[in-house]
Each structure stands twice: as C-alpha cells, then as structure tokens.
Amino acid sequence: MSSPAAQAPSGPDPSGRCTAPYRPRHPERTVLYEVVQHHLESWLAERHAADDAPPWYVEEDFRRYLDCGLFCRGFARARCAACGHDFLLAYSCAARGICPSCGARHMAETAAHLVEHVFPQVPVRQWVVSLPKRLRYFVHRDAELAGHVLNVWLRALETRLRRCCPGAPAQARLGAMSFI
Predict the structure, then answer these.
(1) How many CB atoms lie within 10 A of CB 108?
(2) Quick one: which of 42, 92, 47 has its CA closest to 66?
(3) Which of 10, 99, 137, 157 is the most buried (most CB within 10 A)?
(4) Which pTM was predicted?
C-alpha cells in the first residue's frame, strides 16, 4: 500500500490538469544515510577523545541530515491548486553541508537568482576549478591563501581570453562570481 504522499499530484500541467504524482525521496534508504546513521556517534566520540572535535556546525549538519525528509520528524500538508488533492511534504534540513538534496536545491536556487537578477544579459561561461589534492588542505585552512589562488587563476584566465579574442575592446574586463 502506498502512502498518501506517493499518490498526490505534483501540480498542474499547462492545460490545468494534474501531472505525475509527488514521490517522497526516502533518504533513509540511501547508502549515505545508513553510513551517517550507523557511524556518527562513534566517529564523534573518537574525535572528542582525540581532542580533534569537529566544529559545532559540522555535527549540527550531520544531525539535521538524519532528520531531513523523514515524515516522522515533521511534515506539512499541501494542496494541489488544480484538483484540490492533499499531500504531505516532509520537512527538510535546509543544510548546505552534507545533505545532497538540500545542497542541490540551494545550488539550483542560487543559479536561478544569478541568471535572473544578477548577471547582465550577455553570454556567460561556467568554469570549474579543482586544485591538486595536496594543495587543497592548505587552501581550505587559509582564507587569505584561497583568495590569492583565486586572484592568480582569474588573472591567468583573463590574459588567456584576451589572447583568444584579439578583436575585443581594450576596456573589456572579465567578470567573475566564485563559490569556494
């Protein structure tokens, strides 16, 4: 037997009829959830015993992740405007650290905001920069160093783009939005 949420409509299509049913994501069935659920307490105890406790917000993110998307931890009742059918939505943790669902939602919301309200109506290119593993630790721990590395990369990128676009105006500049 399926839950009421599994039978509920996800909203109207352009003709006003309901589309595919809403399907809860069931995070408790994922490998990540099982690993965190089974090992969080022992990992925290081990870290505290070694005087290497994680920051409070790391522990909080893990604990919130264990409650994310579970109906037993709270839910809201919603109604489809097209057909009036009720369905349940489990509360989310809204964390950006460990939860893949909430992290993806934040990423999509941020991208939509940037495209709709921040970026001018010009062609945009996305670049993803990854540092060698041996350097990541140092850059992660030192915000000033991370800023310097980013500035070097942006200057190198702008220089390369200028060489590839000889007809570009001299006053043209590279605009950048970075998320570290």
Answers:
(1) 10
(2) 92
(3) 99
(4) 0.61
